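Record type: ASSEMBLY
Status: queued
Input:
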Amino acid sequence: MSPSSRRRFLQSGAALTAFGFDLRPAQAAVRELKISRTTQTHSVCPYCAVGCSVVIHTLGDKARNVKPAVVHIEGDPESPINRGTLCPKGISLKEFVNSPRRLTRPLYRAPGAKDWTPISWEEAFTKMAARIKKSRDAGFKAKDDQGRTVNRLDNIAMIGGCTDANEVNFLMSKFRFGLGILPYENQARL
Ligand code: SF4
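Status: finished
Output:
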């Protein structure tokens, strides 16, 4: 029997009858145990522009002395995009979430410095705001070369991420048009 026909045989009902037992209830019970006490959060895979929907299962009853743990991530069966499926990259999301190497805070590398230094979100936002203001003051054009009103910046561009939904993109557009930023690219297809 070839490997592929053996696999088909084991997956079929014939194998269940031939061996005299049915593993499906046991498999269902294992799956039930794995997620039976979790809370579910709906999210989007961050890896590519397909934007597959995922369900994140988190263990922990939100008590103050309990650290929540992501124990399982699967495709969202109610998503019209992926209908419960995930590619090999997406199915490994749990490892990404739980990785000790995952970046969870802003890093700053000062001009000329070799190393990145962790900074607070407040410091990061303050630095970004100061740089945007400085660039806008230097690059804002009220009129073009022909004297027409344009109110735009030529020295700042903006990019978005693959998990940005319509609502986020709406707010991003308001923000960039408010500043006068025209170049914008986003791989989101949500
Ligand atoms: S599961 Fe795969 S195809 Fe879907 S968004 Fe993630 S990386 Fe892209």
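Annotation: Residues 37-99 form a domain with the Phosphorylase Kinase; domain 1 fold (CATH 3.30.200.210).
Annotation: The pocket of iron/sulfur cluster is lined by residues 45, 47-48, 50-52, 82, 86-87, 89-90 (CB under 6 Å).
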